[in-house]
């Protein structure tokens, strides 16, 4: 799908700052009258979406409509997109039901977000992302779109998108995430797991919000410098693995922790193994990178 003239965003990696999770002025103005630039689509709608991307960039969120991590991500990205007042659109795709669309974008995991600019795909991120990171990517995407004469504004896609109904504790967690209260979201997910220990969506959701809480207000350059200076320091390696997963560098995070586990023993080795397993839950047990990392982990453990 890649061509020489295919638009691509510049790399954006700076401070992981979640303090901007509440941006009331933008969010309120976008929500006035219930207008939204978010809609669900199927394969039958996809060509029209491609055509719309010649007017303004269209974000495509590929996930699982019934899975908490996907629902949470869609809510966050939708809120950000709506705050731009039509300079972007967002379409939600159930990748499990619309496999052809997911395959067209060649995503390695869900949830994932890709943009379309004049019909050309622009990969944005896979897995977890903080609001500040999403806004930074969208600001870059606007610059990229302008270089390709895509500078229009889209009319609202309609009223508020009807999301699949979540179990009460999952909805409680989602509301807390929207408010930026990751501790409350974690509490709700723990309650859900206490009621239903095999609730895999709650398990993944808990791992996700714990990660978001850990990377809140972290400075990437400091974390990377500390990890490089102390390769056998447990906390330094855990911190950089967290920010790597949050920033989409999943393989780097997994490889770092596997190497640390192979070099160390005792409580520190077990702490690193536990964190690695938690990160597996966020990415998804069927993801190829998780499968590969599990095999590497088994080799260093046994």
Automatic annotation (TrEMBL):
Keywords: Redox-active center. GO terms for cellular component: cytoplasm. Residues 39-139 form the Thioredoxin domain. The keyword Chaperone does not apply. InterPro entries: Thioredoxin-like_sf (IPR036249), Thioredoxin_domain (IPR013766), TPR-like_helical_dom_sf (IPR011990). One of its GO terms (biological process) is response to stress. It comes from the Bacteria. Belongs to the thioredoxin family. One of its GO terms (molecular function) is protein-disulfide reductase activity. PANTHER family: GEO12009P1 (PTHR45663:SF11). Transmembrane segments: none annotated. This is Putative thioredoxin. Pfam families: Thioredoxin, TPR_20. Residues 1-34 are annotated as: Disordered.
């Amino acid at each position: 799908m890649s061509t020489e003239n295919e638009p691509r965003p510049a790399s954006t990696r700076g401070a992981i700052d979640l303090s901007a999770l509440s941006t009331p002025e933008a969010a309120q103005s976008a929500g006035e009258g219930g207008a939204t630039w978010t809609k669900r689509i199927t394969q039958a709608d996809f060509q029209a979406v491609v055509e719309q991307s010649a007017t303004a960039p269209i974000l495509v969120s590929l996930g699982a409509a019934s899975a908490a991590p996907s629902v949470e991500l869609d809510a966050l990205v939708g809120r950000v997109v709506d705050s731009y007042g039509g300079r972007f659109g967002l379409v939600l795709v159930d990748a499990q039901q619309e496999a052809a669309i997911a395959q067209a974008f060649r995503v390695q995991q869900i949830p994932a977000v890709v943009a379309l600019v004049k019909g050309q795909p622009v990969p944005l991120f896979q897995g977890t992302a903080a609001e500040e990171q999403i806004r930074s990517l969208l600001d870059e995407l606007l610059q990229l779109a302008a270089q390709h004469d895509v500078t229009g504004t889209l009319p609202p896609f309609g009223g508020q998108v009807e999301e699949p109904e979540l179990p009460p504790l999952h909805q409680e967690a989602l509301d807390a995430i929207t408010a930026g209260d990751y501790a409350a979201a974690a509490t709700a997910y723990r309650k859900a797991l206490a009621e239903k220990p095999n609730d895999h969506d709650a398990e993944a959701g808990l791992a996700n919000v714990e990660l978001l809480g850990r990377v809140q207000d972290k400075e990437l350059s400091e974390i990377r410098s500390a990890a490089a200076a102390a390769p056998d320091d447990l906390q330094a390696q855990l911190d950089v693995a967290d920010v790597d997963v949050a920033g989409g560098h999943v393989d780097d995070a997994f490889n770092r922790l596997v190497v640390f586990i192979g070099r160390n023993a005792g409580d520190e080795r077990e702490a690193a193994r536990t964190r690695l397993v938690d990160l597996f839950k966020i990415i998804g047990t069927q993801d190829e990178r998780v499968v590969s990392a599990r095999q590497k982990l088994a080799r260093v453990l046994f």
